[in-house]
Amino acid sequence: MLIIPLFITVAESCSENSxxxxxxxxxxxxxxTNPVQIVFFVILIVCIIRLYLLxxxxxxxxxxxxxxxxxxxxxxxxMALFVFVSGMAIxxxxxxxxxxxxxxxxLVLRSxxxxxxxxxxxxxxxxxxxxxxxxxxxMLCFAFFHAAAVAVSxxxxxxxxxxxxxxxxxxxxxKFVPKKYHLNVFWGLNEKSILLARKIYQENKTGENExxxxxxFIDWPQAQEENKTGQSFSGIMGLxxxxxxxxxxxxxxxxxxxxxxxxxxxxxxxxPEILREINLGKLERFMKRAEKTNFFILSNNEDxxxxxxxxxxxxxxxxxxSRIYCSxxxxxxxxxxxxxxxxKLQIIDDSKAxxxxxxxxxxxxxxxxxxxxxxxxxxxxxxxxETKKPFTAFIIGFGATGQEALRFLYEFSxxxxxxxxxxxxxxxxxxxxxxxxxxxxxxxxxxxxxxENRHEITLHPxxxxxxxxxxxxxxxxxxxxxxxxxxxxxxxxxxxxxxIYEYALQHRQDGFNKFKILxxxxxxxxxxxxxxxxxxxxxxxxxxxxxxxxxxxxxTKKWVVDDAEKDEAVKFYEAYCRVANEEExxxxxxxxxxxxxxxxxxxxxxxxxxxxxMQDRANSKHCYTKEVLLGLHxxxxxxxxxxxxxxxETGNQAEKDWRCRLLNVSICEHLxxxxxxxxxxxxxxxxxxxxxxxxxCNERTKKHLxxxxxxxxxxxxxxxxxxxxxxxxxxxxxxxxxxDNDQKD
Length: 745
Fold this sequence. Notes:
The protein is α/β, with parallel strands linked by helices. The chain has 32 helices and 17 strands. The strands form four sheets. It has a six-stranded parallel beta sheet with strand order 3-2-1-4-5-6, sandwiched between helices. A six-stranded parallel beta sheet has the order 11-10-9-12-13-14, sandwiched between helices. The chain has a three-stranded mixed beta sheet with strand order 15-17-16, with no helix packed on it. Helix 1 runs antiparallel to helix 7 (about 135-175). The longest helix is centred in the N-terminal third of the chain and has 41 residues, at about 135-175.
């Protein structure tokens, strides 16, 4: 750093010439009688000091504490500002002796213009007064700040175009170095895409994958940018202006940034060479060499995401991609689009993902602490749930997240008692917009009025903090097991959570035993505040209150890309095929065609296959509950699985208990299946409809023959065997995981 000695020289020069300057002032060699001139002189001194400190900081970073090139971008604007102001002050003093001293406005404008030209490596020395030119101290400052301005401009240029040069070099390596890789293309730079890209890169870096995960970001001019500056300026300056913060967050991963001419939602998918048309010919070459390509469209504009996904899916590039991941609310129309793609279009619904993430979140011991099974009394000998009190939950805020929470809790709290009946549940939903929501909700879940009549679900048209809410909290605090809070506002969510927490601390007889508060938080600042609140309450009650739903929790490789439950879900499908005596297992695409072909229309076919795929995945998610009921976590060795039907009379007491648990958990599985179908919008089939039906499910009317009690299931075919095979598959999967873990140890 050659600038440091220059600062020292300036300081020494100022010190040595201080007396000379005073003499010159006394002799009116410099006219500082104008107050504005004095202000500018003071500003100059302050700027010199501040610039000196900035350079010292750069030196400190260069000596080993420099973490990323993006740190240059952090100090660059401040350095440019101080150089500009200092240059303006220098020119102001010099011009004051060139005939314009009496017009302050002229001085300021001339000084500002000349200071700006400093960054273009131009100087206006000819306009400076002769007495200033003859002063060594003045000329030293003049030369120094011109050099500093040129240095800032060079750093600016490197910041702008350095990334492009790096990307060019990395692209050449990708092109000529043979290596198996998966290509991950992120359309747009935003928080979600950055989080997911970092997770993909970091896990690949530390894992043992034969394929290298390569990251490409696609950026494009923003509409507001084009309107203000024009396309050409946007194209030149976009890499710096789009996002210093993004560059900082991506500084520790290797990626390539490409610039498209238009946004993906405006792509003309019919164009034969769409990627080249939008300046992405390099991406096309990357895709040809990749073993697999995934597209990610994760902006906060869900409508634009869907349009982009449709356009890309229809293009040749989209057809060559393995998956297109799109962040959007999974409405009916969006679900149809996803279903018709045969699995290529994957919708990431933040609300669904938030609920399932905390539902499947595991502790260090591998236990899913959020499953309702952890909040009820279990008869471990029989493998059923006691009915001393119902599983009780509050859902505060009934937007997308609240509705998904209700679906999850209702399905996963469907337990069998010792008599084979469904254990009671008591759900209370609070939202002052309930009356507005009901119409659409009743259409999506036509069984909801029935569940309300059974007092399993109660909808309260009020918010937390009202007298009605307080009355419900007071009356149910001892029975309350579960609270899910999402009003859409982080501050409000956290306030309600602390209110309920302290009320439970004061009034709940069992303390925080079998009690949990789930708080959805959206902002990183809120997460920090939440942590401080937890720390203030102490660790003795943790995790009685937990947060969920942040982008950092949702947008991970595990949840978005890996599809951790996919392999296990396939095993449940294979078990179903064995029981049904259907043809052997089909790959997913073949299964889509087979199932769709069994219905009169594509829509009904898509509904059929989607329902079955959801059940396979639900079986995978529900494994933990079945494992707890069966007592697998406490067994050193798992007994053999008897064939169906289970014979209860033979064997010793331990064998009888094992068979009893298997039977009761099979009943529990059927109750879960019933609850799942009710939440998906299906209804029981009447006896008359069942007699006229050609199969067990009418996808047009969304009615199913098997939505009934266990002892009322048809015996031909034996539908009970399907439930038992789900339990058997759960045990087999648990044994496999246990063997794998033992081998690792």
